[in-house]
Every structure is written in C-alpha cells, then in structure tokens.
Amino acid sequence: MIEFEGVSKTYPxxxxxxxxxxxxxxxxxxxxxxxxxxxxxxxSMRMINRMVEPTAGRILMDGQDTAQxxxxxxxxxxGYVLQGAGLxxxxxxxxxxxxxxxxxxxSKADARRRAGDALRLVRLRPELDDxxxxxxxxxxxxxxxxxxxxxxxPPVLLMDEPFSAVDPVVRAELQGELLRxxxxxxxxxxxxxxxxxxxxxxxxxxxxFGPGGTVHQCAEPQTILERPADAFVAQMVGRxxxxxxxxxxxxxxxxxxxxxxxxxxxxxVPGGSWRxxxxxxxxxxxxxxxxTRTPAGDGHAAGSxxxxxLDAALSSPAGTAAVxxxxxxxxxxxxxxxxxxxxxxxxxxx
Amino acid sequence: xNWMFANPDEFAALFAEHTALSLLPTLIGLVAAVPLGAAxxxxxxxxxxxxxxxxxxxxxxxxxxxxxxxxxxGTRILxxxxxxxxxxxxxxxxLVRSVLDALDGVPPAVRDAARAMGYSSLRRIVAVDLPVAVxxxxxxxxxxxxxxxxxxxxxxxIGIGGLGRLFTxxxxxxxPDQIVAGIIGTVVLALxxxxxxxxxxxxxxxxxRVTEAAA
Lengths: 350, 215
What we know:
By secondary structure, chain A is of the alpha/beta class. Chain A contains twelve helices and 18 strands. In chain B, 85% of the residues lie in helices and 0% in strands.
C-alpha cells in the first residue's frame, strides 16, 4: 500500500506542482493519475520513487516512510516505464531488460535467461531479443520497456504516460496487453496519462488532477462517468459521458435464436429482408439486402456491456445486432428495440 | 630517408619518446575531462566560466607555456614533464567542452530510466552516459591526440620534442634528410594514433551503425 500524507511539491520560485495531496493506493490495484499537462500528476508519481523529493508531507510504502529508504534500494523495488520507453540505445533488447537484474546483483547468465522470460511475457518475438532499440518499432520498444520494469518482479510498477508516444492502433494493442498482464501480475500499478479514455479503460481507481496540483476526484471509473465531482471532472470526461458509462452496465438481454442458414450459408435476419453472411468459422462478414452490402463489425459479444449492445444495434443496417460467442461466432440476434427497452429500465443508471 | 636507415636506433628512440609525449597528455586530459565535465553539467554558472577558461587556455602559445611551467612548478627547463603538463592542459581544455557536448547529447529519457532503475550517479555515468556519448567523444579525442602529436615537435625548441628534434638538428646542420625523417615519423605516428582511436570508437558503436543500416 502506498499512502500520500499531505504531500506538496513547491518549486523555489513559488509554483506549487502538487498541493497537499492525501491519497491511499491499495496493494494490487491499478490507479490512474489523469489530468491536463502541468497538473502535477507526473510529479506526484515521481515522488513515489523519489525521482522528485516532496517539499512537505510524506509518502509511506507499506507503512514505512520512503524518505527513510535509500533511493537506490527504493527505486530497485519499483519498476518504472517511461513515455517512449527510454531504452539504453547501446544495449540490445535482452540486455536492456537484463540490466535491471544485473543492478540487483544477478549473474550475467541468470539475468539474460530471466530477461528472455520477461520478453516472452510481454510477447516480444524471440528473434528481436538481440536487436538494438533503434531497430525496433515504437510498440516493440515499449514492450521491452515494460519487460525491463517487470523483470525483477518489483512490488510496485510506475508507468509515466507509457503509451502516448505510439500510434493509436499500437496503443490499443499495448493497453490490451497491460489488461491481459494484470491477470498474471500482483503489482501495485500507478499509471499516469492525460488521456481520460485510457484512464477509464485501464484504471481500478482514477485520480483526477487539476491545475495547481489539486485532486478533484478520486473514484472508480464508473463513478467518474456517472457522478463527476465537479464541472472540471465533467469537462475532463468530455462528451459521450452517458454513452460511455453504459460500458460499465451488463444487462440480461433477450436474444433471438438463429434460423437455419440458407444454401449459401448466409443467415436470415428475422423480421426483414436482410441477411448476414459469415466466414467459415461462423464470424460475421457482410450485411446483405438485395444489392446493398455493408461490412459487418464483430457483433455484440454475449454478456458484454450495454454500450457494446447499443453500439452493435445502432451500427447494424438491419436494425438487429448479431450476438457472438467467445470465439466470435454468430449465435443469435439482438433487436434494437430490446436494447432500448433495457435502457429505459431503471437499473440504477443516471 | 638515408638518415633514417642509417640511424634506426636513434629514430626508434625518438619515435617512442614522441609517442609517449603525445599519448600521455591525451590520456591525462581525458581522465580529467570526464569527471570534470560530468560535475559541471549540474552547475550552470561554473560550466559557463569553465568553458571560457578552457577557451583562453588554448590561446596560450605552446612555446610560452613550455618555458613558463618550470618557473611555476619548479621543474628543470629540460624536464619532459613540462611538455606533458602543458599538453595535458590543452587536452583538458579541448576535451572538457567535448565531454559536456557529448553528455548533453544523452537523451533525457535514457538518463531518467537509468536513475529510476536505481543506478547511482557514478555508475550511471560510466555504464550509460559515456557509452552513449562515445560517438560524439571519439572524434574530439582524435583531434586532440593528433594535435598533441604536432605540438610535441614544438618542444624541440627547448630541447625536448621527440621527432621534433630532427627538425632542429637537421635545420642547424642544413641536413634535409634528417628533417624529412622527422616529418615522415610525425605523420606516420599521427595517422597511426588517429586510426587506432577511430577503430576503438568503431568497435564501441555497433549499436549506432545498425541504425544507419536499418534507416
């Protein structure tokens, strides 16, 4: 557990980067610090491993004041992932990762072996192990950066805008990877971003920082969306707030069964002239109505959120969404009206 | 050329002396410039002063320095230490600026990552900053080393100067053969040192060449 007790950082010229921060970060949680630039979110995170020293207050790590822990020891107990990875350009991918262990005193052979394991964990292809950072793409570099931070299995992982320097496709991939890794890791993660969507996607808890280094709200993503503490948070969350809040609601929706497929394998959508063609694995391909054809999306995965259901129903030209199973195979139909009925029901939504 | 083949032992001795007198100051300058440069990076005011002082040091004529040093530190006028100290000062003056430039070129994210991983400052400079700075540092070191090879010859005027003594001797005796031997020896030594340093730099920067190949 990491605790901030009245932590402030004031620079000699009088500007306050962080102002009286009180915060508790539970062990094993993923806490996101979000806010516009210059709001003290990165400074707050960097005070955890004493890259920045607070001017007032203290930070406790499992009850122990971090100011009492030697910096080198403190930092070795915390993985750190930087924006743009910050890999050592003169070392290969595997040696970058091994460096963490070498610093902690591991033998070269042991360090390289465990570095290889860590690179497999973040799914870097083995043939890239001996490449230098400049030979890797931004996404691959960031995978190495994450492996380097995780390889020593530190109790805390600090991530400073780790995915903001890569393109949106790679970012989505890396975000998915982090969510997947969380299933196997026990780390307490503190993640800094200026992207509220990233915060809502990844965080168990979100701390919204505002100008002057003050905290406007500290809550679960759903609460941030549904009950923003003030106008600043509401503005930060931005448009489509209500729609995005649906992402946290799962309802039991009535699914209509599939009829028998036609001679060409296409599925008839009930109550209309639309048909849906599927691939060999039964995944949606194209909506067809006479000569009109529209590429079909992935459909609505059974058991996922109302946001996914509404989006699938709205984006289907047939007015009916395809419901798919875990393998992406079409298993039934969901009518737009059924989704709208569910939205009308007072299930504790705003 | 005839002189060189007629007096191989003397030529070899002068060549060896010249090598020592040029390499030793280069090494002393480098060893002093690295910690000094690293320390100055954190002190903007001292850094500005040091850069100016370094510029002034390099404008002092070498011959004047060779003559003044014995008076300052009490060595004999013919002591080779005078030349070593003078050239070390020039080397340091040139290299401290290069070390500063080279360390400035280390990406802040790389330095940040090293700090966050738990590198101590000293260990980080040796294991991260310097290797990353090699591509900027080695060309400067080559210039300094070659400059030292040529400056050692000036020492001949005060009686210490390795191959430079062939110039003074040949001139006094109107014996061009000896002068030519001195020129050949100096050029060969300068080329040799330059190539060796270039090779050392090359072998330390494989990581940089793969970038160029990939781009």
